[in-house]
Amino acid sequence: MHKLSTSFVLGYHGCDRTVGEAILAGEAFRPSENEYDWLGGGVYFWEANPQRALDFVQEVNARRTGAGAPSIDPMVVGAVIDLGLCLDLMTTGGLKSLAAVYRGFKSVVETAGVPMPRNHGGPDQLLRKLDCAVINFLHTARIEAGQPAVDTVRGVFIEGERIYEDAGFREKTHIQICVRNLDCIKGVFRVSPSALAS
Fold first, then answer.
1. pLDDT value for 5
2. Tens-digit pLDDT profile for residues 142-168
């Protein structure tokens, strides 16, 4: 955990337009609590990448309509985020902390005699049940140990097809931020259409 990064980052949240307009009017973000969330429970943002936020919500909409659910009107809301006490999984310290917590998590799971959660969902492992469980376990362990709660979790994700033959870069690579402490969201803003031009 650290407070080593610059204080504020810009994050972008893809959502339905009715949700986005409500947020811009002052309603709070609703945290996600899915068992497969990549960075555990919280509100998710794409760091410095409004287009990826839009692409994501359009992908969600396509899956919804393909399954017969009503269509949504995709929108992106920008936010100014103070990372606060950040579990930064792009740093050596953050990765070591998570690896250490995994050992404790594995011991608890084995003692309980329940199956270990697994990441799955193709080569990009889009369903991160194991990662989510370990990160959520870290939060619980910190609270039980009387340590300060983590405000945000930040990680880089290598995702998608290679951008050219044998490239080391992937088309959907991104930095994601999961905000656990909603007080870290210092303001929201409407994203300019020019920021969403592909």
1. 60
2. 999 999 999 999 999 998 899 999 999
Are 104 and 137 in contact by the 8 Å Cβ rule? The answer is: yes
8-16 and 152-157 strand pairing: unpaired
Which residues, including other chains, have CB under 8 Å from residue 32's CB and lie 6 or more apart? 41, 42, 43, 44
Q: How far is CA 100 from CA 19, 78, 105, 132, in A?
A: 38, 34, 9, 15
Per residue, the 3-state secondary structure of the chain, as one string, reads CECCCCCEEEEEEEEEHHHHHHHHCCCCCCCECCCCCCCCCEEEEEECCHHHHHHHHHHHHHHHHHCCCCCCCEEEEEEEEECCCEEECCCHHHHHHHHHHHHHHHHHHHHHCCCCCCEECCCCCCEEHHHHHHHHHHHHHHHHCCCCCCCEEEEEECCCCECCCCCCCECCCEEEEEECCHHHEEEEEECCHHHHCC
pTM: 0.92
Mean pLDDT score, 40-59: 96
pLDDT bucket at 183, cuts 50 / 70 / 90: very high
Average pLDDT over residues 82-103: 96
